[in-house]
Amino acid sequence: MEINGLPLHPLVVHATVIFVPLAALLVSVSAVWPAARRRLGFLTPLTALVALVLVPITVAAGQWLIARVPQAPLIGEHASIGRNLLPWSIAVFVIAVALWVRDLLERRRQRGTEPGAERPNSRELRRRPAGTAITVALAALALVASAGSVVQVYLIGESGSRAVWEGGVADEPLEG
């Protein structure tokens, strides 16, 4: 897997390192801040989808690259840690979609456009508790999944940089 003679893995990993934490941030903000959730709309699940698609592409490109470089323990460790990101990315995506759908349904209910729903009066809306059990559960799951995905990106990136650079840089400037 190459682009213009360069291995795909070091190229696509930069997009993954941007989109996974960005999706985590958008999901976290959407989970705890309803106004932001309404403004972000479909951008949160779309960003999470892009991150989710990038993860297996990055892993596959890394597997391709591993077969073409000398074996080293640090590379094996990096590959092993790299496989741990997919479940976290799936969780972030599922939660992003759940938050978006929940917000759409809530807005429909408030407008009275949900099939069979009566339009609530303003007194009913004020009496409704701000945080329902589902909202609180989604927020907790969003924060855990987001934190997990960001921690995994950090661990993977740190192990990858060690695999590439450890022992490859001189302590002193090279002459000439």
From TrEMBL:
Q: What UniProt keywords are attached to this protein's entry? A: Membrane, Transmembrane, Transmembrane helix
Q: Where are the transmembrane segments?
A: 12-33, 40-65, 85-101, 133-156
Which positions fall inside the DUF2231 domain?
5-171
The UniProt entry, under InterPro entries, shows: DUF2231_TM
Q: Which Pfam families match?
A: DUF2231
Protein name according to UniProt: DUF2231 domain-containing protein
Organism this protein belongs to:
Diaminobutyricimonas aerilata
